[in-house]
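User: Hi! I'm working on a homework problem where we have to compare a predicted structure to a textbook description. Could you give me the structure for the chain below?
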Amino acid sequence: MLKLSLLLSTLSTTRVLTGVRSKGWPVNLKELHCFQTPGKLRGDCENDEPAEGKERAVEENGDAAGQSTEEKRFPKKKVALLLAYSGKGYYGMQRHVGSPFKTIEDELVTALVKAGCIPESHVTDMKKMTFQRCARTDKGVSAAGQVVSLKLWLIDDIISKINAHLPAHIRVLGLRRVTRSFNAKLNCDARSYSYLLPTVAFAPKEQDPDDVGFRLEREALRRVNRLFSLYEGTHSFHNFTSQKGPRNPSARRYVMAMACGEPFVQQGAEFAVVTVKGQSFMMHQIRKMIGLVIAVARGHAPDGVLQRSWGEERVHVPKAPGLGLVLEQVHFEKYNLRYGADGLHQPLDWAREGDEIAAFKEEHIYPTIVRTEREERSMQGWMETLPMHNFEATGTGVQGGGDTEQDDSEEASGSD
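Assistant: Happy to help. Predicted structure tokens:
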């Protein structure tokens, strides 16, 4: 009788939850391959993969012992968020708990809490939501196609509610449900960046760097593109970062394409956009690649310095300013090939967000870069330092200059 009473008491207090509802810019830069944004999302939407026992449940819901009652009742789901932001005024992408320097992730995490997507406890420990960014952009660097992965509560109108707590220059533009094992960093096959700069950067060194009337001639543009094309393929870029020697395998990087687009005029000055796509980039690699081409184009360095920089000799490579650098797109080709057409998952190509991405760049990224360049002369000031560089080989060995055993792609946790 006592056993029966205990059984009835247990059943009366047990609940089963099956789910809970919860403008003159180059045209080619507007064309990104993207996907559809879901409308209203629900916590009981279709599972990515069938649950397979206790281990699968723990992977999905986290360590039950460390969860609050609310988290146990309403399991979070793994998603990929598409972000766009202007990096001006921020100390990069990655959040450092307790740091007085504000980052993009500081703003994002605060918005996620206020929107009701994550509990307050995740603010100080982002591992609880398995947060991962695809690329760690540096101070002042912007992004039009950053992707982060994390577990959150799929509330209704989630994108609108998150954006309501973000400043206008940071936006969540898309969301996709992804597999439970998805990792934005590890599943990324390649990254595409752009670099907006005044074309006077490619002018001969005798040209006044403050001449807003300068216009790049067609032959000069062809020469610049011949130089950029030399980067394509696999090379040792040990001279384009720090703390890596010429025989370090991690210094070998594959660049798929690099070129400078057609010039265009903004605020009376001529600008152009350099685009580059590669599997991954080391810290400062892109800015140094652009810096060395500028040095050659202006006549401060010989043409052969690019090929020499891939050898075992140490070559001092100048680093162009960070202002014009933009993370344009991250690519998940292998993930899409495996899951994009299986009928259960959505491909991560973000094609249908293309108009929103272009509009954000034209309103918040490009005008900020142009205005800041005109006001602060970051490129002109940097060009004035080029005569102080020695582009002759100075021996062999590791580049000095900082603790940067890091990657833009975060394969070693760094940034450009």
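For your comparison, note the following. The mean pLDDT is 82. The domain at 190-318 is CATH 3.30.70.660 (Alpha-Beta Plaits). Good luck with the assignment!
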